[in-house]
Design goal:
The protein is mainly α. The chain has 3 domains: about 1-65, lambda repressor-like DNA-binding domains (434 Repressor (Amino-terminal Domain)), CATH 1.10.260.40; about 80-165, no CATH class; about 180-210. Helix content is about 60%, strand content about 5%. The protein has helices at about 1-20, 25-30, 35-40, 50-60, 80-90, 125-145, 150-165, 180-210, and strands at about 95-105, 110-115. The protein has a two-stranded antiparallel sheet with strand order 1-2. Helix 6 runs antiparallel to helix 7 (about 150-165). It is extended and about 65 Å long.
Length: about 210
């Protein structure tokens, strides 16, 4: 992360000089102290995503041009690699996905989906995932229906990846519980799920009677 912060600072400094603006000028424009801007440029601290957007607007550049991000070479050779990536995603804090599967006995259709609750306060990155996937679906459709070029699609992707590059994910810690405590917590969760299903069934019943 240190190398990334230094590179972001270098890019901010270069863009500021290109805009013929002093550190004091930039600080005044973004409502920060001179010392804060100095820390940004030295790599001592990393600006938030929103602050990078403000700095970019003031300096007349695009936000992704200030962010030091390069696509990682990700080799996917088998389905096992995909499954491993899903498990790694599950092991990060701030993200939570539900798995929905649907089988219909009549026509044999079968589908599954990963569902991210964009309003989950316990997992704030879900909202970012939802925003990205919404735009990805649109951009992919435009590419596959010949409304845009592969170059334009890659440019959009690079900008999107750069925008979120400073959001560093942390590993989720899984508790190792004694057997009795694990069973206790499992029963509590099962009771909560049972009560939730009862409430949902009651709400459906009330709705059907109206």
């Amino acid at each position: 992360m240190r190398d990334t912060s230094i590179e972001i600072g270098r890019r901010i400094k270069a863009a500021r000089k290109a805009a013929k603006m002093s550190q004091t000028d930039l600080a005044n424009r973004i409502n920060k102290t001179l010392r804060t801007v100095q820390k940004y440029e030295s790599g001592e601290i990393v600006p938030s995503i929103d602050m990078i957007g403000q700095i970019a607007e003031v300096l007349g550049v695009l936000p992704f041009q200030l962010i030091a991000y390069e696509r990682q070479e990700l080799r996917i050779k088998s389905l096992s690699d995909i499954f491993y990536i899903l498990n790694e995603l599950n092991n990060k804090t701030g993200i939570r996905f539900e798995i929905e599967t649907k089988r219909t006995s009549k026509d044999g259709k079968w589908s599954c989906a990963l569902k991210f609750d964009g309003n989950d306060p316990a997992n704030p990155y879900n909202a970012d995932l939802c925003k990205f996937l919404e735009q990805y679906a649109l951009q992919r459709h435009r590419l596959e229906s010949y409304w845009t070029t592969k170059e334009a699609f890659d440019s959009w992707l690079d900008e999107s990846l750069s925008y979120y590059a400073t959001e560093v994910l942390q590993d989720r810690e899984h508790e190792e519980l004694p057997y009795a405590e694990r069973i206790k917590r499992r029963n509590e969760l099962e009771q909560q799920r049972l009560e939730a299903r009862k409430k949902a069934a009651l709400a459906d019943s009330d709705a059907s009677e109206k």
